[in-house]
Structure formats: structure tokens, C-alpha cells
Amino acid sequence: MSRRVLCIGGSPCAGKSTVAERISKEYGAYYYKVDDHIDEFINLAVEKGYTTCKNCLVMTPEENWMRPPAMQRDEEFDIYDEMSEFVFDFLDKIDSDFIITEGAAYTPKIIKKYGIQEYITIIPTPEFQITHYKEREYVPYVLEGCSDKQKAFDNWMQRDILFAEYVRSECEKNDIPCIINDGLISKDEMFEKVKKLFGL
Q1: What's the sign of the alpha-carbon dihedral 197, 17, 117, 124?
Q2: Fewest 10 Å CB contacts: which of 49, 52, 83, 96?
């Protein structure tokens, strides 16, 4: 039996982890959450001399979050491009015939480059995204050191909204399934949608 890799991309705070964890639990798939290894992958990219990852490590929160959101969005895509080889090196070394993996790092461009066949994306509406980010305990720590935390948070949210818009447009161009999470469907309904798309 050949190896099966189910890949969920999209943008942050969309519900990717919730769905992936449930697929792992109910179908016995190995769960690989890219975000759990982000720091490791960025450091590996820095060791290879990749400049965007290097720059992101030396910026202060003020320097980072007070920049224009479109600039932050473009940098996010560049970071994912630079660390992608390490993401897939890790994936290749997983000793399992059935894997569910998710993360915003799985952009349509990167998925095409690495030839993943079973791929969908989930993106949130701006309202759903902002509501759920406000519930996350780590947000104040990320913004620590910013002179205007509200402006920094607004820039962060706008960055991710722009990220989601670009992912959606790339999915439309390439016939990639893209689920929009507006918070009006239940977790069970979201799970059923993803199951159907993956043929589970």
C-alpha cells in the first residue's frame, strides 16, 4: 500500500488544527502540525543563509508589527518558501503510511512545487479570524514591546486577511478546494466537509 499524505493549508486561525486532530484520532493518521516546528525550520533556513528568515529573527516586535500589512504578508510567503525544504524533509522522514499534516506554510505555490496530490485549504472570514485571535492567550506576548499594541494587532490581523485573500485567489486559479470558515457551521459540519473532500 502506498503512502497517503493529506495536506491542509490556508491561513491562520481557520480551524485547520481542529479538523486535522480529529482526522488523526478517528482514522489513525500520524498528525504533523507544521507550526509546532516553525522555530526549528526558521533556524535551519538561517543556517543556510536565507535572508528573509534571518531578518525576521532580528526585528523587534515594534519593527515587525508596525510595518504595512501588505509588506508583512509578502514576507510571510517568503518565509514559508525559505523553510519549505525543511518542512518536507521532516515530512519525508515520518515513519507512517498515513499522515495528516496542516499549516499555513502549505501555500498553493509550495504544494505545487513538492507535488502533494491531496490538498485542500481552509481560510477564515475576517470576523471569525479576529474573534478567535482575541481569545488566544499568546497574543499579548507576541505584541510585547510594541508602542501601540492596538495598531500592532490591527496590522497583524490585516496581514492575515491579505494572506487569506491571496490563498483563496490562488486556489480559484488552480482548482484547489478552499473552505471559508465563517463560524456559522459547526465543527462536525466542517469535519464532514473535509472528510468528503479527502474521500474518507
Answers
A1: positive
A2: 49
Q: Cite the DSSP H helix spans in 13-68.
A: 16-27, 38-47, 51-58, 61-65
Locate 190 and state its grid cell. Answer: 466542517
Low-confidence ranges of the chain (pLDDT < 70): 1
d(CA 89, CA 102): 15
* Cβ neighbours around 190 below 10 Å, total: 18
Please choose, from the candidates 174, 194, 72, 74, the residue with its C-alpha nearest in 3D space to the C-alpha of residue 122: 194
Residue with cell 502506498: 2
**Does residue 11 contact residue 180 with C-beta atoms inside 8 Å?**
no
> CA-to-CA distance for 6 and 155, rounded, in angstroms?
32
| Measured distance CA(136)–CA(102) in Å, rounded | 19
Cell reading at 199 = 474521500
